[in-house]
Hints:
The chain contains 17 helices and 19 strands. The protein is of the alpha/beta class and 504 residues long. Strands 11-10-12-13-14-15-16 form a seven-stranded parallel β-sheet. The protein has a five-stranded antiparallel β-sheet with strand order 1-19-18-17-6. Helix 7 runs parallel beside helix 8, helix 8 runs parallel beside helix 9 and helix 12 packs antiparallel against helix 13. It is globular.
Amino acid sequence: MHDSMHGMLRALGAAAMALAAVLAGPAPARAEDYKASPAMAMELRHARWFDGEKLQSGSLYVEDGRFVAQRPRKVNRLLELRGQTLVPPLADAHNHNLQSTWGLERFGQDYLRDGVFYAAMLCADPAAVAPLRERIDQPETPDVLFATACITSSDGQPLAMLQSGQPPMTLEQIVDKAVLIMDTPEQVGQKWPLIQDRRSDLVKVIMSYHDRPELRQQPEQRGRLGVTPEVVAEVVRRAHAEGRRVVVHIESAADFEAAVRAGADFIAELPGYFPQHGEDPETHLIPPAVAALAAEKQIGIITATVATRLFLPVPELLARIEAVQKQNLERLKAAGARLLVGSDLFTGNALNEVHHLDQLGVLDKATLLRLAAIDTPRALFPQRRIGCFQPGCEASFLVLAGNPLEDLDALDKPLLRIKQGRVLTQLEDVAATAGDAENALNGKAGASSKAKKATGKNAGAKGKAGGATKAKPSSSGKPGTSGKATTKKATTAKAQVKKASSSA
């Protein structure tokens, strides 16, 4: 059962490209799609915002897409925010569902609805990503990094899946095209120009139970394994020499240690998201010394715990897996390791992971919010001033009705979404007129009594304008942020969508 479930659910996200080719063409624009208003000058009065540790209060000002120190001369929107909470948008450091046209059109709006403005897609075919470049990083779409340089071995993931897909791909179509094959450090040097020729925001390397050499002798495992530690080390050495960042997919605790010792920038998940070969979950515990080394090297360790639910483990097995997840998180936390939030959930995103981490109970709510809304966005986009409310920071934030430090369910129902000073709304007429000159408020301090005040409610943030609906818990142990929409998507794409779900 494990192998069949693995074949269905642990396929690389590059499969989304192949899947899109056999499904319907581009979906038409939907009425519920978010539209971005023009950038507006704002006064956020009586604001309360999360600074990474606690809530601050006061007035904030926005102009030209950034927070500014002084009230703008003309204010387009005055927001009275008594009792509401501002938090930075979330980031998902591990997914695959936005790396094809098909995926972006079906899941991109879910990211905005759930307040996830930043993401990394961790194994994408360059041909599938090329048409997306002009569509992402826009006011009305998430900001996305792509790993289009995805390295595996000649018997590694995702070869088996791609060759058994519908339609199947030939090795000629796959090798050094969809993915790069490197079996030895010498091949890394020989094929490095292929990486240099790709527009890849991150370099991805796939390891899979490298400490189990007997798996390479099993025909049924061919195309499901990964590279050796020596290959990982050489990829990291060459990438760092060129200023490139490397993310390593791992399966076992030994894979994790090898990635740490190689000096990877990111590790894509915790070990043991599922015991692929019937091993005891407890074999996936990270040794404390390795956790300490990861902390010393400041490697970004992406959690990706909620993806375990995709395997539908029986309750007893799930309890054991989650007990290991808790222990690994506790060890990494005690070591001061750099944790990042990523879901690897094809039908979900970082919001699902935040709630699952909350259920595991290792990290307090302030820490979880900081990881998802500050640390992870900055790790993905280190050159940008995001996840903050100081002058000069990008004015991207969510307005919540409640306090997420008391109840993280407050994240499920944003009243308002602001991306670089633009209101994201599902009402086209609101988006079109929100920043009109005639809407500007008088710059005088005393003019506020005559101003047209826009609260979270009357700024078009509820109902269709803000998409704020009460989310119901789903069977996957994550928030029901996808609700019926996620179920509908999974049904529409049938089992093929699950094939495109990847942790690699």
